[in-house]
């Protein structure tokens, strides 16, 4: 699954650690999601969408 | 500087583990001492013999609680996947060894060793699974 997390994070000048703190997850989690190594659960995807004030579909796409 | 997200599940797990390890050390000393000095028999021997196993059971339950309480879903995924692989490795190794004992007169493997073997496999599996998400 592809995602725009790195772009959204960069727009706000947040580091991975900043985002991890806001999501209350580890930095390793943020990195794994960003690099497409780990697909987040639906609750975490919703938290991400809420945090970036957008929709899940605007962050994640199922293109390979 | 990187700020680390503290998972309270880990600190609770460490506290519980510390208590259980202390209990294990005390109980083991007490039971071994009792067997060496008084040579208990019958029901008393059975009751005393299972005492050191109780903290081990507690350690396993503590690990299960740790998984249940983990907030970070990636860490939970790593732990669960590692557990699955270590179960596969332990069952495979003990089955192989069982046939070696049965057919090739290999030395007897104490069932008590299965838990430390599982622990070793769990450590290896955790390191390997963690690498997948780095």
Provide keyphrases for this structure.
heterodimer; A: 64 residues; 434 Repressor (Amino-terminal Domain); globular; B: 134 residues; flat
Description of the structure:
The complex is a heterodimer of chains A (64) and B (134). Chain A has one domain: 434 Repressor (Amino-terminal Domain), CATH 1.10.260.40. Chain A is 58% helix and 6% strand. Chain A is globular and about 25 Å long. In chain A, strands 1-2 form a two-stranded antiparallel ribbon. Chain A has 64 residues and is mainly alpha-helical. The longest helix of chain A has 10 residues, at 42-51. Chain B has 134 residues and is mainly α. Chain B has two domains: 1-71; 72-134, no CATH class. In chain B, 81% of the residues lie in helices and 0% in strands. Chain B is built from five helices and no strands. In chain B, helix 1 packs antiparallel against helix 3 (53-69) and helix 4 crosses helix 5 (114-132). The longest helix of chain B is centred in the middle third of the chain and has 32 residues, at 73-104. Chain A binds chain B through residues 17, 20-21, 24-29, 31-33, 37-38, 40-41, 44, and chain B through 2-5, 7, 71-75, 77, 132-134.
């Amino acid at each position: 699954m592809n995602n725009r997390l790195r772009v959204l994070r960069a727009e706000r000048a947040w580091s991975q650690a900043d985002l991890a703190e806001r999501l209350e997850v580890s930095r390793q989690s943020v990195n794994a999601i960003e690099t497409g190594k780990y697909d987040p659960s639906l609750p975490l995807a919703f938290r991400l969408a809420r945090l970036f004030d957008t929709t899940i579909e605007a962050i994640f796409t199922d293109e390979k | 500087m990187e700020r680390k997200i503290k998972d309270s599940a880990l600190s609770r797990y460490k506290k519980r583990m510390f208590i259980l390890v202390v209990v294990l050390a005390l109980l083991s000393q007490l039971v071994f001492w009792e067997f060496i000095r008084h040579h208990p028999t019958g029901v008393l021997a059975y009751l005393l013999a299972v005492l050191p196993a109780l903290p081990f059971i507690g350690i396993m339950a503590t690990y299960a609680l740790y998984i249940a309480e983990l907030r970070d879903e990636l860490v939970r995924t790593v732990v669960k996947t590692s557990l699955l692989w270590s179960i596969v490795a332990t069952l495979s190794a003990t089955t192989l060894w069982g046939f070696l004992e049965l057919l090739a007169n290999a030395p007897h493997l104490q069932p008590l060793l299965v838990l430390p073997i599982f622990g070793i496999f769990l450590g290896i599996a955790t390191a390997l699974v963690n690498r997948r998400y780095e």
